[in-house]
Design a protein that fits this description.
Number of strands: 2
Strand content: under 5%
Shape: elongated
CATH topology: Fumarate Reductase Cytochrome B subunit
Number of helices: 4
Largest sheet: 2 strands, antiparallel
CATH architecture: Up-down Bundle
CATH class: Mainly Alpha
Radius of gyration: 19 Å
Order of helices and strands: HHHEEH
Length: 182
């Protein structure tokens, strides 16, 4: 493993996992937008099952990304970046990781609570996380939606704004280090 100071850009694996999650999130939001309202009598259809599948794939890739991050050095902060920006970048990244784990798990919990099977592209079904209509867990769907449409989108907007700030205002290599070929 290279020392932290010798690492100047993100590894190809880190970039692949990052951009794969970005692409899957875009697809997931498009699918979620097209989904029917899920009410008490809703039965899963193809688009709901696709949403479940993408959620589980995102969960798996984010887990792999975290393992990669914990076992490989990230590049050192660029020269001239104030310590508060370095700290806030770390907080933002870990908040994103946390939500990218919590949101799919809450979706899986809510599917279980509703009695839906979570099948990954029809290849295999995941175990239910709780009994159908288990007491005290009806809130999981509402929190899943709120975290998905408000909290994580705000964090993603902050992440994109920071990347654009580095590219357009500071004109440094922060964004380039995560781009292919950078």
């Amino acid at each position: 493993m290279m020392s932290r100071s010798a690492v100047t850009g993100y590894s190809g694996v880190a970039k692949l996992l990052h951009w794969l999650v970005v692409a899957l999130l875009i697809a997931q939001y498009l699918i979620a937008y097209l989904m029917p309202h899920i009410g008490r009598n809703t039965q899963p259809n193809a688009i709901i099952n696709l949403h479940f599948s993408f959620g589980i794939v995102i969960l798996a890739i984010v887990t792999a990304r975290l393992i990669w991050r914990w076992t490989h050095d990230d590049p050192a902060p660029l020269d001239g970046i104030p310590p508060w920006q370095v700290w806030s970048a770390h907080v933002l990244h870990y908040a994103l990781y946390l939500l990218l784990i919590v949101i799919p798990v809450l979706g899986w919990m809510n599917a279980s609570w509703r009695g839906f099977d979570v099948s990954v592209f029809g290849l295999f079904a995941l175990p239910r996380l709780m009994a159908t209509r288990a007491a005290g867990f009806g809130w999981t769907g509402d929190v899943h939606v709120a975290l998905s449409w408000y909290f994580i989108l705000a964090l993603i907007a902050a992440h994109v704004a920071a990347a654009l700030y580095h590219a357009l205002v500071r004109r440094d290599d922060a964004l380039a280090r995560m781009l292919p070929g950078g």
